[in-house]
């Protein structure tokens, strides 16, 4: 039987990789709901709407039925109060439109490790849970739009009788262009700039991240967990962490990334040197590189998220994730992290995103 999925944010790093995965399975029909600024992957029906408007969402989804909905998008706002209002409404608006159809069997929400760390404006304030983070650890006593999204999901599930799952990835590595939270592409562009200009490949983050153990999440593995949870009775009404399954130190990984691009990593001296501060003058440089190599995107601002990569690599504490819960319930997938970076870099070259 064909399952009908609606992906909220179908052109982003999570949504795009999820759509490609589900299409490869052969028993899914996929529609993507977004603002329409980026083309949807081939084979995905594109639905354009303003997710923050209940009327717009209702009109866009009128007469449509979906068995599964996946929330993979968020809208960054100036304050956490606005994040809560806007992003909570996005979940509520879609579920209010789909719930009454009676066709919806499962809704999945992708959030992240700020569930444990707190949002950017209250990042790691107060008592951060002991690592590795586990799903049973309680919410932080701060405002957090992830909690609002969860609560809107839980309310709608009770009202309309569908199942749910929540997925908490760490930093996501995967192919997407124009995404606001994309470390892999950001580092690829940064390394390409260093190679072209001869500038040093300087680690921008903290000593805690340079020296400590950490993990990341391949968007393809997240896609597989999303499908598993959406179709497995054992995963119904549960929240799951999701990471690759291996650990590393950035002091080791930074050298591997430099080696791939044929550049020398700068020695780390313990100082935080954010990319956002150092990369403000690179727009023309990238445009020149793109023209010289006939790249697909000349606007560096559509490729990178300096601020988000700085936030991830600048954390002053260890961030490590436990995967026992989903493994015990049957999700045994794994992704080698060095391979995740190389696979991404190779695809970026094939798509003419980097030289």
Automatic annotation (TrEMBL):
SUPFAM superfamilies, alphabetized: NAD(P)-binding Rossmann-fold domains
Segments forming domain PRISE-like Rossmann-fold: 66-355
Gene3D superfamilies: NAD(P)-binding Rossmann-like Domain (3.40.50.720)
One Pfam family here: PRISE
The protein's name in its UniProt record: NAD-dependent epimerase/dehydratase
Organism of provenance: Caballeronia arvi
